[in-house]
Every structure is written in C-alpha cells, then in structure tokens.
Write a sequence for this structure.
C-alpha cells in the first residue's frame, strides 16, 4: 500500500477548499483534512492591542492534533473509510494508492508537518482580489473593521516570505486568479505524474 500526502496551502479565499473537493472527486481513494477544523475556540484565541483576534497564526490552531490526524491517516488510510467508488478518467495503475489532500492557510510554516508532504502547492492572490473575495464571505466570528488590512493580509505576507526564503523547501506556487478549471487541470496532471512515480 502506498500513500501520497498533498499540501494545498496559501492565501485566504484563494480557492483551496473548492480545488481540494474537485480533486477528491477525480482521484481514487482520496480524502481531505482541512486545517480550519483545528481552530481553537474563540475564547482561547489571543487578542492584540487593537482588539483583533489573532486567528491567522499557528497559536490559534491545535497543530499537534492536526499532525496526529495526518499521521494516523498515513498509518491506516483504508480504515478512514476513504475507499471511494472509482472516479471517472482514473488510470488503472493508481488505484492501489491512497491520497490525502490537506488544505489550509498555514501548512508549510510548522516543522512537524514539513516531513509529511509529497507535494506542496501554494495559492496566491493579489491584495485587491483577496480583499474583494474576503468581503463576500461570512465568518464566525465576523471580521471586525480593519481586520483584513491589520491582521489577515500582513500575516499572509509574513508567512509567504518565510516560505520564499526557505530555499530547501519545494513549493509549487499557483495563481489563484486563474480559472478553477485551469488550476484543477494543472494540479490533477501533476498529482497523476506523482502517482506514476510511486508506481515505478
């Protein structure tokens, strides 16, 4: 049994969840773990001097639990109930491989996760487009005035810069302004290549 662990990270509202769901429908034995499921309750998330809840930092997440969930999946993917009906257009030679897509905004800045990835993708958006998309979403708790400019965007730039400065980390940057079809086609083809390598 072989497993492939795919990281789908990047900017808020970059299309990570949509892309992950579409890939799951196209790939055999594919499961998704979402980083959003590991947020601490609001009462445990720090507030800064401006009154902003600091959600876009590692301390706002139960990262140990997330790593444990991924490791448990790697140990026993079949028991996670991911054996799916065979998707269309799947090559026969990849059906005995289990695939986990982990999607989230802060995947590659936490060392215990970095040894687990087979492939890392990172969706990017320019400031104006990201702000526009964010404004159309309803969050719980809701974004306070100035939150995007004061916390969300600066944290995104900080973590993205950390990635870019880490020359040893291979990350495939994806332009989140491209159509979902383009992004899906590119990532799907790339994953199929990776699956074929596992078969060699």
């Amino acid at each position: 049994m072989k497993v492939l662990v795919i990281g789908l990270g990047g900017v808020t509202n970059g299309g990570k969840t949509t892309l992950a769901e579409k890939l799951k429908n196209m790939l055999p034995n594919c499961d998704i773990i979402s980083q959003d499921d590991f947020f601490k309750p609001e009462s445990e998330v720090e507030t800064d001097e401006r009154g902003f809840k600091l959600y876009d930092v590692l301390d706002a997440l139960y990262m140990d639990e997330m790593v444990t969930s991924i490791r448990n999946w790697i140990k026993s993917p079949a028991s996670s109930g991911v054996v799916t009906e065979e998707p269309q257009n799947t090559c026969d030679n990849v059906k005995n491989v289990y695939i986990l897509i982990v999607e989230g905004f802060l995947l590659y800045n936490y060392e215990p996760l970095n040894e687990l990835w087979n492939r890392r993708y990172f969706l990017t958006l320019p400031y104006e487009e990201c702000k526009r998309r964010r404004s159309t979403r309803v969050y719980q708790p809701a974004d306070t005035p100035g939150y995007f400019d004061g916390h969300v965007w600066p944290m995104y730039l900080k973590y993205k810069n950390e990635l870019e400065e880490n020359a040893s980390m291979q990350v495939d940057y994806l332009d989140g302004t491209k159509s979902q079809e383009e992004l899906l086609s590119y990532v799907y083809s790339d994953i199929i290549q990776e699956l074929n390598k596992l078969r060699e």
About this structure: The radius of gyration is 17 Å. The domain at 2-199 is CATH 3.40.50.300 (Rossmann fold). Residues 82-89 have pLDDT under 50 and may be disordered. Strands lie at 2-10, 30-34, 97-103, 119-124, 172-175.
